[in-house]
């Protein structure tokens, strides 16, 4: 599968060539024909690189926190990768750029590689691109790789599930109802970070977070809650300690090669399955538009098409005649 | 495709047999072998039945609002279907039952059919089950069908996208930051319902909602904002008017048979594609566990498997030899 051309790019990534790395990430994002070969070669199921997801509402200070974490890990001589996942929402495009410009203080540091996943890339969508970019950065010996996501959409939840550890960043000023509202979101946080701890309302936030966590029956399953101020740096040491013990404790429930592999495999199977089903549909109906027309005219139904796709596996060709409905 | 056994159930659904309908919904949820045939027969791309999604944070009063809407549509002689999608989150299980018990005042009304989608059903998951249950209720002449979802998770967003109109229910007491946080969520609301309008803070909520909406460049794209109190009934007439004009205005941007068909087809293609890819994987590796072992031992990679799945479409058998990496 590995052509000499792909091999050229693989070597670039492994030899700390930042321009080569950027090129490969673009190839991954754009669905370049060589991308699968390159990913196949770079992939290492036993990689030690830690991926840390950073998520939470806009305004929670995620970019400032990411900045702090970059500085911390740089002081400890780590090469740090950052993937900043831009929001798909047209609503929240504004505030973002300013925050990320701040991150650029690290841009001239060769030990830091920052990548913005700004578009939905090729077939796999934003989460497919981010998933693959993570593996490329790990192969380029960036450790940790920080993935900052905006908001709480579908893509964000999926990306968080691919990270080894996810920090859910919250800030004071949200009432109890909000904490309840975020119930589903809280489940994606391995560590709950209460940022802007110097603000009034931090006590109330911590109380309601703890009240929510008490609903988790097993105390050992409750994520640690860390107060910090990304702005002043207060609490960052406690946070990195918590990250460290999350990963070193065998509990490091997301950290095993097995779990990573299962998630990556699942994500790829889902993506390729969708592509495959689409191709089979197009083989039969020519285009999505013609399929929809067929359905609207009563010649077939989405459920019949579903059966046709299922039957494909068994080559149940007898299913391939359109059947009349009563 | 339609056996006489399936035909039996199809007739039950069409003849307003509530027990038969309940049976069919269970078959759909449990992936019964007859389910695809029944769904195929019942499906009508030109159905007039309107599906109204009702979503928003716990505590926003969605169940009370659903109750009000049931009463309203019953007074107008509609048969009303309700699908109450239970949360997948263990966090928010508590408050729910009480709310839904209230809905049971309608349980003895033969013109109302209430169904709780409590489990994740068969392969398609919660959103697949809900999607199919919607079509069954429409075929049973329930119009409208109300789909109440909890929280803002992935399944909820997907379900909302299948509804013709989605009401996003908000309540006073959430600050500006929360409005921003919900940016992504707001996009799923065709009508923004500010519930508990008798509470203090309603002005502030409306102001921040409107401020968020101003970010939508085209004024015509901004969803209407309706104040109401599900508790007292105040504003419900305005809400049902808004629902009416959303559907009657050609703008009724989600309401066309074309759009419904495209969404249903997309959802089924995604679901069947995933199933198909999983079967192909198992054909080759025996089990997910063995696949993961293969990857961990370096004999293959998820990316190579992805190529194998892609290649299946073209019967590119030359791809099927595992290739060595450099």
Keywords for this entry:
homodimer, 326 residues, alpha/beta, Rossmann fold, 7-stranded parallel β-sheet, 14 helices, 7 strands, globular
Fold blueprint:
2 copies of one chain form a homodimer.
Chain A: H1 4-14, H2 18-29, H3 35-42, E1 51-55, H4 62-75, E2 80-85, H5 93-103, E3 112-117, H6 125-139, E4 145-149, H7 154-162, E5 165-170, H8 176-181, H9 183-186, E6 191-194, H10 202-213, E7 225-227, H11 236-248, H12 257-285, H13 288-296, H14 302-314
Parallel strand pairs in A: 1-4, 1-5, 2-3, 2-4, 5-6, 6-7
Helix pairs in contact in A: 1-2, 1-3, 2-6, 4-5, 6-7
Q: Can you walk through the features of this model?
A:
Chain A has 14 helices and seven strands. With 326 residues, the first copy, chain A, is α/β, with parallel strands linked by helices. A seven-stranded parallel beta sheet of chain A has the order 3-2-4-1-5-6-7, with helices on both faces. In chain A, helix 1 crosses helix 2 (18-29), helix 2 runs antiparallel to helix 6 and helix 6 (125-139) runs parallel beside helix 7 (154-162). Chain A is globular and about 65 Å long. The termini of chain A are far apart. At the A-B interface, helix 3, helix 7, helix 8, helix 9 and helix 12 of A face helix 3, helix 7, helix 8, helix 9 and helix 12 of B.
